[in-house]
Specification:
single chain; 93 residues; mainly alpha; 4 helices; 69% helix; 0% strand
């Protein structure tokens, strides 16, 4: 019986198993440590890079307000601030 169990365990790939809660926490911990290291190396706390698309940056900003009842109002206020900044840049040049 033990030999059958061992044979079955070898035949079953590890990817088929759901990770344990502890394994999930360890993976999340590693991911957060890597993100923290990237932010510390940048020094400015900016999570965006030059290679990020406009669409992905907008998705992150909009996603920040998920779950808020005033999400639409917040996003509109940010859009107004960005438009005001653009107008100021145009008039300065």
């Amino acid at each position: 019986m033990l030999n059958r169990f061992k044979a079955k365990a070898k035949a079953t790939p590890a990817e088929d198993h759901e990770p344990s809660p502890l394994a999930k926490l360890k993976a999340a911990n590693v991911e957060l440590q890597e993100e923290l290291l990237r932010l510390k190396q940048r020094g400015d706390g900016n999570t965006f890079s030059r290679s990020d698309s406009k669409k992905s940056i907008a998705a992150v900003v909009i996603g920040t307000f998920d779950g808020l009842s005033n999400k639409t109002a917040r996003v509109k206020a940010i859009a107004r601030e960005l438009n005001a900044w653009l107008k100021a840049q145009r008039s300065a040049s």
